[in-house]
Every structure is written in C-alpha cells, then in structure tokens.
C-alpha cells in the first residue's frame, strides 16, 4: 500500500481538487482507495460523500489501529473507494503533541494496509499543523499544488523546508513535486510565473498543469470527476487531470 499527502499551506490552490480526482482515477484503474480528509473544512468529504465509510478522520488519531481493522474487516473484493471523512473532533488534534499524534496516525495507516487498501490519499488543511505533520511522517509521497500567483509562490520555500525537515525522520518520503493549478494560459502573469518556477525548480515542477476551468469546480460541486461533466469545455480539463493522475500513479509505484 502507498500513501500520498497533498500539502500546501496556501489555501484554495487545488489540493482538494487534486486528491478527489486522483481518487476517482485510481478507482477506475481498479485500485482499492482510501481517502482521508484531514481538513476541518470538509471539502473532500463533501465531494466524496457517496463513498463515506462512517469511520471519521479524528479516529485515525485514536488507539493503535485495532478499531480501524475491525471497522474495515468485511470489505468486498475488487476495486472500491472508502472515505474517512473530516469531523469536528479533528480540530482537537492540533492540541496533541506531534510525537504522540504521528505515532498513532502511523499505526492506523498500517491498519489500512492490513485491511487490504492499495492506496491512501490524504487531503490536508492549508496550515502547517499537527495533523499535516503527522500525515507527512506516515506517508510515502507528497505533492504540492500551487497557484501561479505571488502569494502562493511566496509560500513555496516554507513548504519545501517543512518537507525537507520531515524527510530527516521519514526517509522514505518522496516529494513528487509541485503542480501548477488553476492556470490561466491567457494571463501573462501566470505564464511569467510558470516560466520563473520552471527555471528556479527544474526538478520539482511536475510536467503539465491544471488549467483554470469552471468544469472542475462544477465537478467538485456535483460529487463527480470532471470527465463526467457533459460540456465541451470539460474535455481539456479531463486531459490535464488524467495526465496528472497517470504521472502520480507511475511515480507512486503502487502495487495492486
Ligand atoms: N482547475 C480549477 N479551475 C477552476 N476552479 C478550480 C480548479 N481547481 C479548484 N477550483 C476551485 O477553486 C476552489 C479551491 O480549490 P480546492 O478546494 O481544490 O483548493 P484547496 O487547496 O483544497 O483549498 P483549501 O486550502 O481551502 O483546502 C474551489 O472552489 C474549487 O472548486
Ligand atoms: Mg482543500
């Protein structure tokens, strides 16, 4: 089982959109997907509510994984998706010690592997808090969507430092890179920022990008991936999102 976290302390840059679309794409690839929503805003939980397991995200910080193993004991065979939804108690995790939270969260990730999931996708809040750090300590991979605006770019160094610090302890953590999201190709500022980022971080920019496309927002509001939106404009968005999913799938080296 492989675990991916989306992390970016800047809000509204496409973290949830990425996680949700990866989840739909991976399900269609025949994987057994668990999605954990560690953001109290509950956006991924809203979009993926049809897949709710009724096991809540704060329970990922409870005990040693035995409860989780029991909860997911009778999963059917074959491809499936289960949402571990955000809940109000999740806010309390920010008061826990990181050592304790990270240890327990990791035990529960192991319990998801024991339950037969192939991949765990973790959505996080736009803040460098305890729950994000706990997720990074337990994960195999991390990816950071960014918007091509000054405030988003400003935060990159902080994010890269956080990831570098976590990697001192979680040496298996692989940074898949940054993916430019909500890109408006007709906006000269976006084009300039994208060129500057490619020059500054040639190894860290994921090839391709996700355009600023209202069909993606439509999809997130309707609980479906963008390829289910019946509009001509959804086609380009579909190609971009599918290309990102194929890239992430390959880099994660998921074994079914
Ligand atoms: N490619 C896109 N084109 C147009 N709108 C988008 C795109 N991606 C996301 N959105 C919209 O932009 C908003 C922010 O996106 P999203 O929720 O994925 O970002 P986020 O990084 O998860 O935000 P937060 O930090 O608040 O959790 C949402 O309303 C979403 O519908
Ligand atoms: Mg979000």
Structure, explained:
By secondary structure, this protein is of the alpha/beta class. It has a single domain, classed as P-loop containing nucleotide triphosphate hydrolases (Rossmann fold, 3-Layer(aba) Sandwich). Helix content is 43%, strand content 16%. It is built from 10 helices and 7 strands. A 7-stranded parallel beta sheet has the order 3-4-2-5-1-6-7, sandwiched between helices. It is globular, with a radius of gyration of 17 Å. Adenosine-5'-triphosphate binds next to helix 1 and helix 9.
CATH superfamily: P-loop containing nucleotide triphosphate hydrolases
Distance between the termini: 8 Å
Q: Which distinct ligands sit in these coordinates?
A: adenosine-5'-triphosphate, magnesium ion
Report strand %: 15-25%
Give the overall form. globular
Q: Strands of the largest sheet, in order across it? A: 3-4-2-5-1-6-7
Q: How many domains in all?
A: 1
CATH top-level class: Alpha Beta
Average residue pLDDT: 96
Low-confidence stretches: none
Named CATH architecture: 3-Layer(aba) Sandwich
Query: Into which percent range does the helicity of residues fall?
Result: 40-55%
Helix/sheet category = alpha/beta
CATH topology, what is it called?
A: Rossmann fold
Number of strands: 7
């Amino acid at each position: 089982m492989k675990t991916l976290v989306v992390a970016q302390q800047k809000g509204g840059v496409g973290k949830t959109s990425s996680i949700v679309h990866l989840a739909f794409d991976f399900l269609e690839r025949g994987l057994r997907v668990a999605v954990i929503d560690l953001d109290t805003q509950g956006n991924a939980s809203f979009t993926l509510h049809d897949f709710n397991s009724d096991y809540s995200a704060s329970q990922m910080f409870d005990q040693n994984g035995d409860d989780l193993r029991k909860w997911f004991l009778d999963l059917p065979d074959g491809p499936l998706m289960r949402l571990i939804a955000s809940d109000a108690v999740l806010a309390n995790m920010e008061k826990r010690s990181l050592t304790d939270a990270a240890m327990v969260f990791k035990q529960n990730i192991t319990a998801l592997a024991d339950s037969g999931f192939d991949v765990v996708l973790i959505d996080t809040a736009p803040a460098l808090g305890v729950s994000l750090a706990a997720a990074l300590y337990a994960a195999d991979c991390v990816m950071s969507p960014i918007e091509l605006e000054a405030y988003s770019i400003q935060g990159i160094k902080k994010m890269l430092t956080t990831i570098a610090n976590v990697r001192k302890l979680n040496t298996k953590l692989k940074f898949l890179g940054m993916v430019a999201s909500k890109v408006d190709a007709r906006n000269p500022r976006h084009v300039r920022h994208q060129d500057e980022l490619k020059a500054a971080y040639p190894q860290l920019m994921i090839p391709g990008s996700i355009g600023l496309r209202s069909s993606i927002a439509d999809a997130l509001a309707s609980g479906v991936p963008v390829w289910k939106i019946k509009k001509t404009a959804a086609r380009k968005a579909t190609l971009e999102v599918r290309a990102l999913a194929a890239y992430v799938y390959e880099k994660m080296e998921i074994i079914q």
